[in-house]
Amino acid sequence: MGRLTTVVMALLGIYSVYYLGKTHLGEEAGLWGAFLLAASPLNIYHSHLVTADIPVLLFIILATHFCLSYLRDGKLSSIIRAGITLGLGIGAKYLPGVLLGTLILAHYFGKNRKLVHLAWSFVGVAAAFLFTTPYSIIDFKTFYGGFFKVTSIMLKGKEDLNFVISNPFYYLYPLAVTEIGPGWLLGGLAGGVQLVRENYRKALVLLFFPVAYFVIISSWGAKYPRYFLPLEPFLALLCGYFIVRLRSRFPEKIWLPALLAGLVVIWPLTNSFQTARDFVLPDVRIRAKAWLEYNIPADKIFIIEDHHSIPITSVYDINAELKKANSAKAKRVILSHYAKQKVYLSNWLTWTSRLYDLSLYEFADYFFVSSEYINLFNRDPNKYADFLTFYRKLAEYATLKKVFRPAATESGPTLYLYEANRFPVQDNRDLGEAVKNDIATSAYNLANEFLRLGFYPAAEKWYRAALRIAPGNVSALTNLGILYYSTKRFSLAHDWLQKALSLDPGNLYALETMAKLERLLKKTGRGSHP
Predict the structure, then answer these.
(1) Could you write out the DSSP letters of every residue in 474-525?
(2) What is the per-residue pLDDT across 439-460, written as a single tens digit (0 to 9) for each?
(3) I need a labelling partner for 88 at 20 to 30 A (CA). Which of 33, 248, 303, 384 fits?
């Protein structure tokens, strides 16, 4: 349902670009803008993801359209609609807040400069934002703290982010050139200049957001390719506007705009074809998953990269689904789905502290790493020296069991499956224990959910998995004993409850269950020892 929503909003975004262009720049410019946005590989890629980027793109286009409408007609309804769509955009992602400048410019240059109109537009912004993001008021402290924490990370960048780039022109070169091509980029810039010469007020309203937005995101330390997406509709419309004006200026030289149009479309169409081809090709990660499920037992512990290098189902995934479930029935559906499936106990390599310390993962059976990260870090070996040290240690202290390379008819990265066998001496015991406890807790929490709803075999499996990593987990020992008591395996119940009590003699749950067990055994004449 989430993907379908994104697809619908992507289609609405393409139509909105056409409508904006048709209304304010001419129908041909609108058609060009819609066509180029539809051909954008970045737009195509993000149109199949459940993220905020595509909805934000739609709201940015609509808000800009209503701002231009107010510039032209000065109607209160136009500026209120601009405010509402802007508020919806900010509710989805804060960056559309830059459009407040567009709103103010539209009011300043518009036919009707009544301050009450501007005030009503701000009311629309606030109302739409609060409607979509009520939590910002309900828990303002958390909202405020989270906003500035994320802003700080984006401004300064962090060592563990994949896209920390110092180049201030990254979004023009190399990203724009590799994504949309030099023809589209130069055509869009030329169209902006042309519009300024012909109608500077309309140009200022239309161009304020892309220019201000570009300056802001280019100044950040963390630069993600998807941040370029809100700039594409403006470049597409202005490029189409320039082609149309060029054709009208040189009607006898039809080859000139035709040549420019060809240079504009060939690059994004080629890249889009490759993107679409990757979507329909089988992914090597799916093949790797199938091999894994057939050849590796489910009780093995995997360490995988934080962005799954292979789409295995782990206890983390199930626990995340359970947190989103809004009813006991929804939880039962989730757990019944996974009760008999092969699920792995895994942890992520999180690119935070001491990744290169392989000894932190001495409890692991397998490591899955991806060429995506290896290639990324090799581009700047000085900056990522610690991360590359991890890969070298992995090759030294683990055995390469399997390599999954994408064939010519497959997409995806090359995946490397290492089998752990020997490790260096632990040099950070506390951090290693923290990693182990995190994984054990995830397995323990999932086991509790299975136990509560009566999925006993699955609960037993994950209690044992938690105890494999953290043998001293008293709660897991106790609950496993209670599970065996509930399923009338009294001998096992006695053994595990005794283990729990040996570590925590005052454990009330273990004492209570042990007392019940003793009374039951005496009643049945089996004595106090099963």
Answers:
(1) HHHHHHHHHHHHHTT-HHHHHHHHHHHHHH-TT-HHHHHHHHHHHHHHHHTT
(2) 888 889 899 989 888 889 989 9
(3) 33
